[in-house]
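Running this now, will post back.
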Amino acid sequence: MKILHINSAKYWGGGEVYTFTLCQRLKTKGHEVVLACRPTSAIGEVFKENGISILELPLKGAADIKSAQKLAAYCRQNGIDIVHAHLARDYWIASFLKFFYSKIRLVFTRHLLNPIPSTFLRRLILKKVDKVIAVSEAVKDELIKQNLFPASRIIRIYNGIDVGRFESAKPGKIRKELGLNEHNKLIGTVGQISPHKGSDIFIKSAAEIAKSYPDAKFILVGDDFRNGEYIQELTQLSIELGIGDQVIFLGPRSDISEVMKDLDIFVLASRNESFGLVITEAMSAGVPVIVTKAGGAKEIVDETTGLLVDVEQPAALVAAIESLLKNESLAKQFGNAGRVRAIKMFGLDRMVDEIMAVYNEVLLNAE
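Update: finished.
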């Protein structure tokens, strides 16, 4: 197959990890893959570094007819079978392709729970999609409720990761980097530094934990959604709470598997979560997880593999963290069970095989 993916994101996040790992695995399976992206984007740089073709276009959003025309010409000239779009802002451009090249098949992945603004024109245009992949049941339910796409064309396919990379990662790198030993409890969260991900809730909870565990360290890994301004606010918050020397911002990292391997507990305090790819990464590394009951996150963790707490409840989060710090056997039990569940349900090959089945279906129905 020849598949063109569209991802116009400027910055690196979970949706971009999804796009990259999917394309990388499709390429290893012998398919031709190209990414349409914006110039100087983070995802474009990662694709170039890994030898995957890119097509740089403005991709300005719904009104960017010129990008749609150029994409249509590229698809026609290169015999592209499927266009797979990953962001709502790219769905319009992908849909317009059918006006210029009716042969093309369209697949969208919806990564977010946020509702897509609905108008008559938008519903009319988006009905040109052949299949919509929702990354969780929560996202699928939201899409059906919005009535933007025919419900029969929406399918749930859980995100997948290279479980083996996290399972086999060697511990010790991050502790050495931070000058920590095995006696320092290391509690961490990974993802965009933002209110959406509950970064502030994580720090407020850390302040309570630090009262009983003064040698504990709390790390936050990821990009600042406000280009450094929010991290400054959170740094000031941690100082005001008296834990300025215990909270560490590591920024975006390419060695997440090693980061996960050194954690005693992984926490995701999201206020809203469509899926939570980092939860599966922590589970794959054998780390006990504590997550909020936010959207798709509660589909990943069950009562045997971690602890679920209500959203916006720092006290409940504190109680959950303390329960695992005090009960190491339970923490180990969750870590082992989580690894088994991740291997069974959230492997990359499973995800790619299910997406390939979608591709085959839409091509078969086109004939």
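The longest strand covers residues 32-37. More later if anyone needs it.
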